Amino acid sequence: MKSSSVLIVLLGLGLAPPASADPRDTMSIGVSIEPPGLDPTRTPSEAVGTITYNNIYEGLTRLDRDGHVQPLLAREWTVSDDGRVYHFTLQDNVRFHDGSPLTCENVRFSLLRAGAANSTNPDRNFFTNIADIACLDASHADVTLKKPHGSFTYELAWNDASILSPASADKNVSHPIGTGPFRFEEWQRGDHVTLARNPDYWGKAPVLKTVTFRFMPDPLAASNALLAGELDAYPSFPAPEVLSRFIDHPSIRVVRGTFPFKAILALNNARRPFNDIRVRQAIAYAIDRKTLVQAGADGEGTVLQSHMAPNDPDYASLPDRYSYDPEHARALLKQAGIRPGTQITLSYPPITYARDTSEIVAAYLEQIGLIVTLQPLEWPAWLGQVFGQGKFDMTVIAHTEPHDIGIYDRDSIYFHYKNPAFHTLFEQYEATENPEERHRLSVAMQDRLAQDEPNVFLFSRPRDTVMNRHILGLWTDQQIAACPMADVSWAP
After folding, report:
1. What does the alpha-carbon distance between residue 400 and residue 397 come to, in Å, rounded to a whole number?
2. Which residues of the chain register pLDDT less than 50?
3. Were both Cys, which of 30, 361, 437, 475 would link to 234 (CB 3.0–4.6 Å)?
4. What is the largest CA-CA distance in the chain?
5. Overall pTM > 0.90
6. Residue ranges of E strands in 94-191
7. Coil, strand, or helix at residue 205?
8. Which of 149, 91, 89 is nearest to 115 (CA)?
């Protein structure tokens, strides 16, 4: 029977036709870590960007799902011949969530604040290269650099380059105000953050009415929630060994993607005995990283030789300088005057990979005579003590920022690496915008780090996203710590 005939019959019987199902306009996303706050300009925590990047906050530029720089709050820009002056034209009719308009003064405030002497911005060194910002009018900003920086528009697309309003910046940790497609609605500590669609968004309106990010660090509990339909998706699922639960499930799929995951055993180069290259090399020789990949990355990772993930266009597959050789490791320690029984502390944050990797690393180092004390830290303590103050011996952490090899040229970096040769390479790298020359210099920087081994480069691993089969537009490859939801929807 045709649908029109059905309608006639129903009306003839005095019955209303069944209402069509409303399209779904909410989504629940699982994340493994609760952020320490919701201001990416104050903390390096990946969890902040996952919730806020291009959802609450926006920058002058953005990275798309392929890692390319795209316009955002700046609709276009030009660069002076000497590479020092960037002339940005801002989007029209942009307002912050509190109703205040976006102007050049917001750009000036945000970028100069990020580079100020009292700034806690994770990438403060990047912003200190800004000499001045001139506002010709409300819609144009001229940013003058102290020296050319070829990665400038790329780094403006990072989380900590978000453009803020002076009126709300001090409150963004707990009540974030941005220009993005979603507004902050609720933070129930220990459970979730909820975002609501911004009805006054300047760009394309998001499809979803609300998005809830639920904090679920326990992989088993998270998988149960996915199977029960309480969670709709879990990007960066933390436990590959649990993924078998979703095989052949009628409404769930697992998508394997990439992201700039670089797990390292960070060493405090300013503290004895790690200020001796022989000790750092000994530790590298002592760890069987191929076995570590099998245990810590479920066999799906890549052994790293330097600070670059395989999904980076400038990644270089370097020779293995530190194949597993505990005998040589013991010999290097003896040359450096390090006696058997020397005690060191290995601190790690509350993440599954960090805990598991730390336990394995400790066992390897004890085989060469080092006595390792494992020190688990909660996130605020790790961020303050290790990352913020550099007070540690060793720590296991994954850097997930894109193309962040420049951190090895920072005076304030927590592992305290300093090398004039690396500094020269980095200066040459940022002084040019020629892609071929930048690639050559990037490979040279990777090789320099592999020789110096300031940290023991462990492994990279793929990114598994568990999601409802009817979700469209969710990032499964991640170029930056983010889960942008503006283009995400349910299939009709």
Report:
1. 9
2. 1-21
3. 30
4. 97
5. no
6. 130-137, 140-145, 182-188
7. coil
8. 149
